[in-house]
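Researcher: We're reviewing a set of sequences before deciding which ones to prioritize for further study. For each one, I'd like a predicted 3D structure that I can look through quickly. This is Glutamate/tyrosine decarboxylase-like PLP-dependent enzyme. If possible, include the structure in token form so it fits the rest of the review sheet.
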Amino acid sequence: MDRHPENDLHRLPDHLDRIRRYAADLLAGLDERPAAVAPDPVKPRPPAEGVGLEGALAEFAERWEPGFSGSAGPRYLGFVTGGTTPAALAGDWLTPVLDQNPAVDLDSTAPGLERETLAWLRDLLGLGGAHTGAFVSGATQSNTVGLAIAREWLGERAGVRVSDAGVAALGDVRVLSGTAHSSVLKALSVLGLGRDALRAVPTLPGREAVDVAALERLLDGRPTVVVANAGTVNTGDFDDLQALVALRERHPFWLHVDAAFGGLAALSPAHAPLVAGLAEADSVCVDLHKWLNVPYDSAVQFTRHRDLQLRVFRNNAAYLTDPAGDPDFVHLTPENSRRLRALPAWFALRAYGASGHRAIVERNIAQARLLGDLLAADARWRLLAPVRLNIVCFTLADAPDAGRIAALLREVAATGTAFLTATALDGVPAIRAAFSNWRTTDADVPRVAAALADAHTKVIL
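Model: Here's the predicted structure for Glutamate/tyrosine decarboxylase-like PLP-dependent enzyme, in token form for your review sheet.
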């Protein structure tokens, strides 16, 4: 057996061709691949002698691949998860081939490609030239970086450098939000600010958007961080960013906007007003492996306060460049070395541009509205919120119960037709369907509705 990389290297063109055919077959069957697969455990095998690349591929195809879901396919609606466009796939395949570390500018043009990609994204989102960015792994890391910079800003207001003195020097900290994503709580925990620092602000009646008047009543001159939403995960709701920017003029605070998927509403002329004011945010989170449809492990963070970001993440090592001027990425995020995350996004943006991605966004919004209309016309279901963007939040019309909903969703998943997730809105057990995949067609929507109806007949009646 080929147990050493050198042996596989000699046959690498043949191996890559075999993998290409295997991957092409997977992609060809993706539309009909089960959207979800029951996570039955695969019996682990003990460590063994190597079997070479060909043997490893054969074993993966036999033992593991059949249990992988069609999460990149058209009817995986459980999370705000895109698929992978062909151009993004090409960029992602080339990423490990070239195996660049873009964290420093010492040895390649890879960091320059990342800066170009960030500039394109900044323009797509309507951010101004004052915003600079960096690539991170996902929305959780992006929110963490943004809030770490906010923590340093809080320190400035208190006359301390948190990056030097530690978070204990801050004293009491307030983070206010109407409907904060769970990753914000995780970020607060990691940053030492604590989950208890988050104070819930009342939302508008029947909405997940913050009540700006209620927020203003909570602002008493103390340094504060406000976390706003540009797209909530349950209903796709948006805070009024322009109103928050105006409020900040009267009561200074740090404005962090979680625009993980909703930021790309900027691509649609009809929905761009939802993100009006985003350019005035102090920090912004955008997750590219959602609506931009690039593979996982790709998000960006933007801020108007690079000086504070540099204080937090500066890497003091003699063998690295001085961060003065335009700092290397090693000085801007928690990671020192990482993969060239920008390459799939660069390929996708260069291949399809703003118009191609606008078409994806607008098509998904129309599909969400279509599903909402189908459910509203069916007496078995009740919409819990208007379809504002790309998410449909609904429940059983009769006696919604978490257990019944869980059983119904298991039945839907068992058919392989679609995958949706349970949630709760204002204490009501519910279901959410999120449309963000470029592969989803209008014909997929009635299939999802029919699968829900069939599962209702089998489980609820």
